[in-house]
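Minutes, project huddle
Topic: does the predicted pose make sense with S-adenosylmethionine bound?
PN asked that the exact inputs be recorded in the minutes so nobody has to dig through chat later. Recorded below.
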Amino acid sequence: MTQAREAVRRALACVDEPAYLALDDGARLPQTAGPAVVTRMLERLEVEPGHRVLEIGTGSGFTAAVLSRLVRPGGHITSIDIDARLTARAAKLLDSDGCRNVRLVTGDGTRWVPDSRYDRVIAWVAPVRVPDVWVRQAVPGAVLVSPVHLAPLARAMAVVRLRRGPTPDRLAADLLMPGGFSEARPEPHDHWPVPSYGVDALTRDAAGRMWWVAAEWLRAHEPAVGMRLLELMITDGWHTAWPVPGERGADLHAYLMAARPDGLTTAALGAQGWGAGYSQPDGVALVGPADDLFVAGAPAAAERLDRWAREWRERGRPGMADLEPRLHRRGSGWDVRAVVP
Ligand SMILES: C[S@@+](CC[C@H](N)C(=O)[O-])C[C@H]1O[C@@H](n2cnc3c(N)ncnc32)[C@H](O)[C@@H]1O
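Predicted holo structure (tokens), as shared on screen:
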């Protein structure tokens, strides 16, 4: 691990990130994941010289440039993006950066990838489930790192590490890490204001800010129920301090995604980012983006979230890194779920 960390550190230091991210008009290409998440994912991928790496989500070409260095000498990168404008742009940048071992391809990397044998697979967009096509083209022993959903709710996400066994049906997951990404899309998109997966009701407030809510119980109801809940959140919702200072909302989010209690909810709160917690038709209580508490409507909602938080404390306040991943075969891929050990 120390060796992998050192190799990633050296490769990152060699790449001029602003050159990849700067657009002609001076703006920056939007990156969903912060540098700490990108670094951690590259370290956990355990890339070595000579490896053949498949990357899904070329974007600016920055991570392809880092990978290009990590596999030298002898290795090569195949990087795929849904957006032909991005692959064309990245091709030029990588060429002028001397990265001759990178092949760029345009397409939906969750459905198709160029025929080859890959030692490593890394995705920077979240598929609905880990697609078979990645596992089939990976060699026995290959490592795969990808963002995934831990529950069928928007933003209920983590990054998983997988290892392929001797045959493609032998896949094992050994690690979960925190990390939020946009969802893989079937076509290019200029903006990602709304998650493309797991949103149950969506609206904008008077200032045009986006609010959405995701909860499995909503799926059994008329759309009007979700819209009324959003109205309640916009008109009646308020933020307050989390009752126990120092507790990390992200850890409670992770625990709830693993425990999957009835009523588990994720929601976007206008300009205030997003939160996770509990909802029922007449109330919501969420751990908000700044480790705060967001409540609207019936006090029973806040009482339920408080009960969940007490259970979480009793179990030692586990966060994402304490959870264990489990794989479930589903359709043409693998669902990843988490359990509290
Ligand atoms: C977070 S960005 C990638 C950032 C990139 N690694 C970098 O260094 O700039 C995610 C990328 O995934 C692409 N994408 C979205 N859906 C996709 C899909 N189905 N297949 C391949 N790429 C996809 C987007 O166009 C976007 O460029």
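Observations noted during the meeting:
- The pocket of S-adenosylmethionine is lined by residues 31-32, 56-57, 59-60, 62-63, 80-83, 86, 108-110, 124-125, 184-185 (CB under 6 Å).
- Residues 299-314 form the longest helix (16 residues).
No decisions taken; revisit at the next huddle.
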